[in-house]
Specification:
globular, two-stranded antiparallel sheet, alpha+beta
Length: about 150
Amino acid sequence: HSDDIALRHEQLLQVSHESLEYQQSTIRNPIWVYDCVGEKIIKVREINKDTITASNLTKLLNRNYENQVRIELVQVKQDSVLVTIPNSTFLTQSMGTTGAEEYLIEAVFTLTELPGIEFVEFEFEEGDHATPGVYSRKLLQEQVDDRRK
């Protein structure tokens, strides 16, 4: 009888450990967020500038938007990062205007954490809520500030 209880406890521990691991793998861990209520772009954590790469930052964005938006690094050149979103339907049609803007802000501010990078060029199929093109922190900050006026 006590063996059954011990086994049951072990199974419960295993299940809760697995679900905790799953939760941890799906928890968003952004560097930047857009507070659409307060109309503010906020840096929520620091990262080590010496160890970041464009590849690591795109992986972070993909983890934060798992099963929603998948961004792929094309190349880094001079002061720009070129990225593509092969299947952009979720971004352009399903997230709404605010969700799409939130994603673009988070992606641009994250990728421009790279030393010397000022611009992010997005390639994807245009939709109702998002437009491909070249974005910068300055441009996005101005758009947010304009709405506050």
